[in-house]
Automatic annotation (TrEMBL):
Residues 488-559 form the Disease resistance protein winged helix domain. Residues 239-251 have a biased composition (Basic and acidic residues). This is Disease resistance protein RPM1. The keyword NADP does not apply. Keywords: Coiled coil, Plant defense, Repeat. GO terms for biological process: defense response to other organism. Residues 130-157 form a coiled coil. Residues 77-104, 239-259 are annotated as: Disordered. Residues 610-945 form the Disease resistance R13L4/SHOC-2-like LRR domain.
């Protein structure tokens, strides 16, 4: 039954007619009304539906949105029968005159006891006029007999639980619209509203309890019940149903009859002038009603909390096990923690909560750990402690745990030391107690006289040195030599992995039975140095392999001292000269000499230079004009050379004397102007690597070296990169190089050439790991038919188990090489595929869909010609890196495929209008835009992108604001022509999570940070080529700033002053170009090198 009423709050009837009626008839607080069955139309104040009937107060009294705040009715959102149920419970409080539950005296005169009695009557009291059953009388007699006994046994918590049970049942009587809270929720609500307080009974109640015995109490209760029944029967016979209600809703004062009736009630409620202790006083009723109002407010909160917890539960439905909640204590408190903790306890799947804190807040944080436990130490020391214990838990002796923590405690002032120690444990967790004790003893402070105070100070550099030596001495001897070898390189210079591997091997630092074994061992050495954090990863390829590394300042200082002591590097040479030559060279070159001084003295120093094994001239512009003869002199005097790199030099010819270098194992002529015919007559039997061509393809460039005509005799060849096959015979000969691991070949669209290339690939199927094929670029669509049998007749064994990388450029007229090379996809281990000019369509990609191990797919210019590209459901399951280039494509759709994609790169893709489904990629973290006009809007729905790289995007200030509020972006890289304006301003509330900013653009001259911008920015790297860095203002508005790194000539004095004024005193790193570089211009500008921190992957 539903009533709809609207109360006019401004009227004199602000309190409901029901309220005034109850006030004028206090005796009816303890009496049950009959169901009148008549229409009730109150005058003025309340407008009722014409067809509604008043119901007995025992029934659910549904008032809809009936707002009677003064009397404590519920005003929950979304009106439901549950609101009236609470009102019904409150009304029932005023009808209780007996104690059917047998509650003790300490409970009956409290609001909690009154509420429980009311709820019991709503559930168990018989209908009006119905005779009491035998069971009712027996239950009543048992209750009375047990009254005194229960006084001592019933606890406050038991009353809470029983009341919660009754309240839950009452609120859920209407199955359709009931409020659904757990019993535990109701218990918590009641505990908050009715806290357990030990107090003495009120004086009046105590006196009444003393004056009246238990026996007389029972008699009085019986008499009251009989009298109430008599009065109800009289009312039924004298008054018409509903008449009294109409009369009592008026505003007239009570008449004589009413006063007489009130007097009779008072007579009933008193014995010898003393009020019965079992008649509920008005004050107690009012107090209970107030408590019901509190229950209403608390129930609203609990409903909100339950709604939140239900959403959490929905999110976690697909996950098994329990959840551990971790809190971070920023302001030394957590608002409404008690409510949160109680919600967790009732959730069922939350195992508990731990607090992240700093050590000085650890006592406070313990209050928030539930169940009681130690909080997580959020400081760096706590992080490394936990890591150390985790690494060594399976290898730890009983007396070992404390020694790990003590060692870290000694290093807590230097993260470098803690990191070195943890990485050493990771490399070898099985450490003896004697070894660790020795290290701990070595880290004991050595007092030194302080010149500034009377206290002893300790040089922290000593701890760093001790910790470095601990990790260094733990390395194998060969690995230690390889680490010291890095001292010849300038600090912070990026060193390619391939360069290091080749130089270590030819220098004899890694010696195994053959070249291939030595290379494998050298690769393990490189990884070991990375894993021990002795060198840092700089560029990480798409497959996860570290492509280059950099040496930190601290390690570089240590290894330089050791290398000079062991005479691995000459003290007379600067780093920028030493890196060009072998170690142990004994050259007589002063630090101030230029590289051309070395070439001029070649014949004078012929004895010394003849023993040099390595000559790395990468980037040296010293062969111009008449200096082309330098290369010929090198080939005549340095006959023991094993490693010769001319990469990036201005050399224009390979002399015939190149064949004098019979020991040569590595020849690198990439990015030079050597003509294509220069390599035809090369015959070096020990050559392992021949590297030619351009690392970045140049349009219309014909400078691609030919394959040596006698390549079939160079049986030790392992890498043959970017060479052109001038005839089919050299391709046959390549098939004889059974140690070849990497092949990059350029061929024409000729049946003989293709047939012999496939034959060579088949012959090398057991050794090839990387294959690159370049064909002519054409606008003609490739044939969908298979190659004729004459082309495939020698292709018997496709590369299966070892081939990891495949690159195809161009097309053929009679078939597709991609289909042929990936036909037996069940056995392929391909991880990286790069396609250019292959003119594929959607159907052609089906063969790639079936390759299970692809992690990197690059579709460069005209590799794909359809306007739409779709990643279908369950396809490309392991793809992590995707690059697309070209303007022909308009839509890329992710329809359940490529769900592990982490990075998307768009190059010159102005035609793309949508990236449908990109927001559903759960692992997408990195976006790179290159030569695109404002394609940031394609990613506006992606929330978890943490790194954005912009190059040649020419964005305006408004364009930058489009992604300035990306929540998860932590790294922003701005390269050349990334922005139109020369000034970049970070405004308030922009880049909320940014912690790393990299600027590598000569066009950007000013950066400004407004208050409230980039609040988490920790590091800025700025490379400039105009001599002096531009304006960098507002760094005082960056509360988390820790480090600034500048790569260039000068830093303004104003910037240095701003750094000194910053509260964090951020570390300033200034990498100046060496004078020799600028005087000669003979080394490629360092600013062109990639400058990414180790945590970011770069395109390899």
């Amino acid at each position: 039954m539903s009533h709809n009423a609207t109360l006019l709050r401004g009227s004199p009837y602000h309190r409901s007619p029901l309220w005034h009626w109850i006030r004028r008839k206090p005796w009816l607080l303890r009496r049950k009304l009959p169901q009148c069955g008549k229409n009730i139309v109150p005058a003025g104040a309340v407008s009722w539906s014409t067809s509604q009937q008043c119901t007995c107060l025992l029934e659910p009294f549904e008032l809809g949105t009936f707002c009677t705040t003064s009397c404590g009715s519920f005003n929950l959102p979304n009106p439901s029968p549950s609101n009236s149920k609470v009102k019904s419970a409150k009304t029932r409080l005023k009808q209780m005159d007996e104690d059917p539950l047998g509650l003790p005296e300490s409970v009956k005169d409290k609001p909690l006891g009154v509420l429980l009695q009311a709820l019991w009557q709503l559930k168990h009291k018989p209908a009006e006029g119905a005779p009491a059953t035998k069971q009712d009388l027996e239950r009543k007699e048992d209750t009375i007999r047990d009254l005194e006994r229960k006084e001592d046994t019933i606890t406050h918590e038991a009353i809470i639980k029983e009341t919660a049970k009754k309240l839950k049942g009452h609120m859920e009587e209407d199955e359709g619209k009931a409020i659904r809270l757990n019993e535990a929720h109701y218990e918590q609500i009641l505990r908050e509203v009715f806290p357990q307080v030990t107090t003495k009974k009120r004086p009046q109640i105590q006196e009444q309890a003393t004056a009246v015995s238990t026996t007389s109490t029972i008699i009085l209760v019986e008499d009251q019940i009989k009298e109430m029944i008599r009065k109800v029967l009289q009312e039924k016979s004298v008054h018409k149903p509903g008449a009294e209600l109409q009369e009592d809703k008026s505003t007239k004062k009570p008449g004589p009859a009413d006063l007489q009736e009130d007097i009779s009630v008072k007579k009933i409620d008193t014995v010898d002038g003393i009020q019965s202790q079992h008649c509920i006083p008005d004050a107690l009723i009012e107090e209970t009603i107030a408590k019901i109002r509190e229950i209403e407010c608390t129930m609203k909160d609990q409903l909100q909390i339950k709604g939140i917890m239900d959403k959490i539960e929905d999110r976690l439905m697909s996950q098994d096990g329990q959840i551990l909640v971790i809190l971070k204590l920023d302001d030394d408190w957590v608002s409404r923690w008690e409510e949160t903790k109680n919600a967790f306890s009732m959730f069922g799947r939350i195992a508990g909560a731990l607090m992240l804190t700093f050590k000085d807040n650890i006592a406070r944080a313990k209050e928030y750990c539930w169940p009681v436990r130690e909080p997580i130490d959020y400081c760096l020391l706590g992080l490394y402690r936990d890591t150390a214990l985790e690494l060594t838990k399976n290898h730890m002796l009983e007396d070992n745990p404390k020694i790990y923590l003590d060692i870290l405690d000694k290093c807590k002032q230097q993260e470098f030391c803690m990191k070195i120690f943890i990485h050493a444990l990771h490399a070898n967790p099985r450490r003896s107690h004697e070894e660790l004790s020795k290290l701990h003893k070595a880290l004991q402070p050595v007092p030194q006289a302080s010149h500034t105070s009377g206290h002893n100070s300790f040089d922290s550099n000593i701890i760093a040195k001790k910790m470095f030596m601990f990790s260094y001495s733990d390395l194998p001897k060969e690995y230690r030599s390889c680490l010291l070898y890095l001292a010849i390189f300038p600090r912070r210079q990026h060193i390619r992995r391939s360069t290091l591997i080749g130089r270590w091997v030819v220098e004899g630092l890694i010696t195994k039975q053959d070249w291939a074994s030595s290379v494998r061992h050298a690769n393990r050495c490189f990884d070991a140095l990375i894993n021990r954090w002795l060198v840092y990863p700089a560029d990480i390829g798409a497959t996860g392999q570290v492509k280059s590394c950099v040496i930190g300042d601290v390690v570089h200082g240590f290894i330089t001292k050791i290398a000079r002591k062991q005479r691995i590097i000459e003290t007379r040479l600067s780093h920028y000269l030493a890196r060009h030559f072998s170690i142990f060279n004994n050259l007589r070159i002063r630090r101030s000499d230029k590289i051309n001084r070395f070439f001029e003295k070649l014949y004078e120093e012929s004895f010394r230079v003849s023993i040099i094994k390595v000559l790395d001239l990468e980037g040296c512009k010293c062969f111009g004009g008449k200096n082309q003869r330098y290369l010929k002199d090198i080939c005549r005097t340095m006959v023991l050379l094993k490693y010769l790199s001319l990469r990036g030099t201005d050399v224009k010819q390979l002399p015939s004397e190149i064949n004098n270098l019979r020991e040569l194992e590595v020849l690198d002529i990439r990015d030079t102007h050597v003509p294509e015919s220069a390599t035809v007559n090369v015959l070096l039997l020990k050559l392992k690597r021949l590297l030619a061509g351009h690392t970045v393809p140049r349009a219309g460039s014909n400078e691609i070296s030919y394959v040596p005509e006698k390549i079939g005799k160079m049986l030790n060849m392992e890498v043959l990169s970017n060479v052109k096959a001038q005839n089919h015979q050299v391709l046959k000969d390549i098939g004889k190089l059974w140690q070849l691991r990497k092949l990059g070949v350029v061929i024409g669209d000729n049946d003989k050439l293709i047939r012999n290339l496939l034959r060579a690939i088949s012959d090398l199927h057991e050794c090839l790991k990387s294959l690159s094929i370049t064909l002519p670029m054409t606008e003609q669509e490739p044939s969908n038919e298979d190659f004729p049998s004459t082309v495939l007749q020698y292709y018997k064994q496709p590369p299966k188990l070892l081939l990891e990388s495949l690159s195809i450029t161009g097309t053929t007229k009679k078939g597709q090489l991609l289909q042929v090379l990936t036909k037996h996809n069940d056995f392929l281990q391909l991880a990286k595929i790069t396609l250019t000019g292959t003119r594929l369509k959607q159907d052609d990609l089906k063969v790639l869909n079936k390759l299970p191990n692809i992690v990197c797919l690059r579709l460069r210019d005209k590799a794909y010609i359809d306007s739409k590209l779709t990643f279908e459901n369950d396809k490309f399951k392991n793809l992590k890196c995707f690059l697309v280039e070209g303007s022909n494509m308009t839509d890329i759709l992710f329809e359940g495929g490529a769900l592990k994609l982490e990075k998307i790169t768009l190059c010159s893709t102005d035609g793309i209008q949508s990236l449908s489904g990109v927001e559903a990629l759960p692992e997408l973290k990195e976006v790179e835009l290159n030569n695109n006009n404002n394609k940031l809007s394609l990613f506006d729905k992606v929330e978890k992108v943490s790194k954005v790289t912009l190059c040649s995007t020419k964005l305006s200030e408004d364009d930058l604001k489009m992604f300035a509020k990306i929540r998860y972006m932590r790294c922003l890289v701005l390269k050349e022509k990334a922005c139109v304006e020369s000034q970049i301003k970070f405004n308030k509330d922009e880049f909320p999570s940014l912690n790393l900013l990299i600027v590598d653009s000569s066009a950007i001259t000013k950066i400004e940070f407004a208050s409230g911008s980039a609040p988490k920015l920790e590091k800025i790297i700025w490379s400039f080529t105009r001599g002096t860095v531009g304006s960098l203002s507002g760094i005082g508005n960056l509360p988390k700033l820790k480090e600034l790194e500048f790569n260039g000539e000068l830093i303004p004095v104003e910037l240095k002053e701003a750094i000194n004024k910053h509260k964090n005193k951020p570390n300033l790193i200034h990498n100046k170009p060496e004078n020799q570089y600028q005087e000669m211009g003979n080394i490629e500008e360092m600013g062109k090198a990639a400058r990414f921190p180790s945590c970011w992957k770069s395109q390899d």
